[in-house]
Each structure stands twice: as C-alpha cells, then as structure tokens.
Amino acid sequence: MSLAPGNGPVQITQEQLQARISELGHKIRADYAGKEPHLICVLNGAFLFHADLVRTLHMPCTIDFLQASSYGDAKQSSGEVKLVKDLQFPISDRHVILVEDIVDTGITMNYLLHYLQGRGPASLKVAALLSKPSRRKVEVPVEYLGFTIPDAFVYGYGLDRAQFDRNLPFITSQE
Ligand code: 5GP
C-alpha cells in the first residue's frame, strides 16, 4: 500500500491506520493459524502499532520489547546501532514477529534481525508500519507492511519529533 507519492506531505489518518492494521492482523492470524506467535515491539516508535496490532489478532500470542538506538534526537541516522534494552524472554523455538515503526535505511532492522536470528527462533518475520524504500541502504525482508511512503520525515502515532508528538493519533510530515 502506498500513500502520498511525489512531493506532497504524508498524511495517514487514524481511520486509515486502524483499517490497515486490521488487515495486517487478519493476514498474521491466517499465516500463524495453530501457532502462538511472539510479537517483539521495537521501542519506542512501535509502541502504539504493536499495541493495536496484537489487539487485532484474537489468537494466543505473547509479547516482548527491545530497544535499539541509532538516531538520538537527530533526523539523520548515525549509521551505528546500539541495543539499549534487551529482551526479557527467550525466543528459541518461538515464531517471532519483529514489530517496527518504520524501515528507513534498513540498518536498524538488519542489525536486529541478525541479533534475533542468533537466538534460535523457529521463524522470524517483520511487521513494519511504514517503509521508505527510496532511502534503503540494506535490503531487509518486510513480510507485513502497513504503508510505503516517500522520503519525508514523519511523526505521530508512536513516531517522535525530537521525542514529542508520539501521542498524535495520526501520522504526518507537515511542519
Ligand atoms: P533505519 O535504521 O532504517 O535508517 O531507521 C530506523 C529508525 O529510524 C526507525 O525505527 C525510527 O526510529 C527512525 N526513523 C526513520 N525515519 C523516521 C521518520 O521519518 N520519522 C521518525 N520519527 N523516525 C524515523
């Protein structure tokens, strides 16, 4: 799904977010029928997406959280990823879905996928609310993608603008 192609501002409403997340939830539920997926939220940006996504699943599942840092308060990635908060629970033999807010260069996701793969999950897939493919430096597989957006800095619905505006119920790129 693609929104706001070209140079226009990105604007994803609360209704569009919920409708798309519900579609992703249905797909996950079908794909993981008979399994108990383990949904790992990448803090802080994915906290609302993760919370809304798990509520659409209506199936046995477990959750955990981790936090990686590469941005600080800047709008440009430093290119270096640090694990700031580790998992609480083991993932060996679990069907893991890594839930991320946005894939930009792909550097963070690539780092996290290698990190999690090393812990022996039964399977490992990615759910990302947003993707900016034009910015990609490392290709990463995103099985469940909410919206493809152009190269613009977006905030709201979990994503921050210098740590503020995460509580906006919509996503925007407007100043
Ligand atoms: P990547 O490593 O893919 O370049 O960056 C991933 C992380 O950068 C995301 O998890 C998010 O925290 C941050 N990021 C990338 N693009 C944006 C953006 O447009 N807005 C905000 N608020 N964060 C972004």
TrEMBL record:
Segments forming domain Phosphoribosyltransferase: 14-160
Similarity comment text for this entry: Belongs to the purine/pyrimidine phosphoribosyltransferase family.
BP terms from Gene Ontology: GMP salvage; guanine salvage; hypoxanthine metabolic process; IMP salvage; purine ribonucleoside salvage
Catalytic activity: GMP + diphosphate = guanine + 5-phospho-alpha-D-ribose 1-diphosphate; IMP + diphosphate = hypoxanthine + 5-phospho-alpha-D-ribose 1-diphosphate
Pfam families reported for this sequence: Pribosyltran
Enzyme class name: transferase
A GO molecular-function descriptor: magnesium ion binding
Keyword Secreted: no
SUPFAM superfamilies, per database record: PRTase-like
Source organism per UniProt: Deinococcus phoenicis
Cofactor: Mg(2+)
EC number: 2.4.2.8
Pathway involvement of the protein, from the record: Purine metabolism; IMP biosynthesis via salvage pathway; IMP from hypoxanthine: step 1/1
Compartments (UniProt record): Cytoplasm
InterPro entries in the record: HGPRT (IPR050408), Hxn_phspho_trans (IPR005904), PRTase-like (IPR029057), PRTase_dom (IPR000836)
Gene Ontology cellular-component terms listed: cytosol
Protein name: Hypoxanthine phosphoribosyltransferase
Keywords per UniProt: Cytoplasm, Glycosyltransferase, Magnesium, Metal-binding, Nucleotide-binding, Purine salvage, Transferase
